[in-house]
Design brief:
153 residues; rod-shaped; 7 helices; single chain; mainly alpha; 65% helix
């Protein structure tokens, strides 16, 4: 097979727009593929435990810092959960859940009064002092009532 040397079919310069696009893609495409593969690998849950939280590559350093500095004690988790529940339910229901949590986990008993006091103070902000006081009962040595009193005075 003989190649044509006819000037009409052969270009005199090194490349047209198609060749430049091809070169650009040849340089950029591998970089894009490597980066997308790296990001995909960082999103895989490699621990084997079913977790809804997935870290991306940018989250890794923030997660390392937050796990070292922020640990939520069981009593803090319980208090936060009950405070959130107080937004939707009356204090009587929330106090029942506090008592059940303390009965189920006796190690929380020493924190029961402070949690009940915080609930009492929050109940005053939500329901007012007299209505909040109507829910008081002897959960954690009447700490709820003392929280209501402290928030009201």
């Amino acid at each position: 097979m003989k190649h044509s040397t006819n000037p009409q079919t052969r270009r005199g310069h090194r490349g047209g727009p198609a060749r430049r696009i091809g070169r650009t893609l040849a340089l950029v495409l591998p970089v894009v593929l490597v980066l997308s593969g790296t990001l995909a690998v960082t999103r895989v849950n490699w621990t084997g435990s079913p977790s809804s939280s997935v870290l991306t590559a940018s989250d890794v350093s923030a997660a390392e810092v937050s796990t070292r500095t922020v640990t939520h004690a069981p009593q803090d988790v319980l208090r936060d959960r009950l405070m959130t529940e107080l937004q939707d339910r009356n204090p009587g229901v929330v106090l029942t859940h506090l008592q059940q949590a303390v009965n189920g986990h006796p190690s929380l008993a020493k924190h029961c009064s402070s949690i009940a006091r915080a609930l009492g103070q929050a109940a005053v902000r939500i329901y007012g002092a007299s209505r909040a006081q109507s829910y008081a009962r002897p959960v954690c040595d009447t700490a709820f009532a003392s929280g209501v009193l402290a928030a009201h005075s």
